[in-house]
Amino acid sequence: MAPTVDVVVGTVGRAHGLRGEVTIRLSSDFPEERFAPGAVLRAGTINGERLEVRASRWQGDLLVVTFHGYTDRSRAETLRGTELWAQVEVGESDPGDFHDAALVGLEVRSGGLLRGRIASIVHNPGQDLLVVRSEAGEHLVPFVTELVPVVDLATGVVEVVDLPGLFEPAPSQEGR
Question: How far is the CA of 175 from the CAs of 170, 171, 172, in angstroms?
């Protein structure tokens, strides 16, 4: 069995109707799986209350969900703003796609040298950026195959092409 990580898959929005339904602001690429009837999510924190999905449906582009034990609007409204966490398998969902949680903390190597560790991922419309933290500061590395040809989750190492200037400190702003 593959190792798992905890990830946020959505945040509860406002109550919808009178029968305990809530809207969900999605953070998952797999809403039909994460919010299927019977799916169990955790509320707020990794050790938060377990919420079992009773029903879910799409209303236009809005996901509407009902959880067991939340049968009226007043009770459902108490969930508003709650992050919903799920346990997912670490690794690739599709070739080249990784959960942020699987990448954060991995060593970054380039030219045979340890350059730092991945601190976070910035999701931009054009491409994702790895935020690599080192003793010299933070460096942004475009997360594209041409620059990051190897992501080895088993060894905890990401290989980055040895590109001059990529891991050098930013030039001083003095004298400008």
Answer: 14, 11, 8
Q: Is 81 left (phi over 0), alpha (psi -120 to 50) or beta?
A: left
Residue type, 23: T
26-46 pLDDT, tens per residue? 887 788 989 999 999 999 865
Domain identity same for 116 and 149: yes
Residues 121, 77 share a domain: no
In a domain, 110, yes or no: yes
Strand-by-strand arrangement of the 128-134 sheet: 137-142, 128-134, 113-123, 107-110, 157-159, 150-152
Note down the domain range covering 139: 100-159
Q: What is the DSSP string of 54-98?
A: EEEEEETTEEEEEETT--SHHHHHTTTT-EEEEEEESSBSSTT-B
pTM, to two decimals: 0.58
Residues 70, 108 within the same domain: no
pLDDT, tens digit, 9 for 90 and up, residues 44-97? 865 678 999 999 999 988 899 999 999 999 999 999 999 898 887 765 454 456
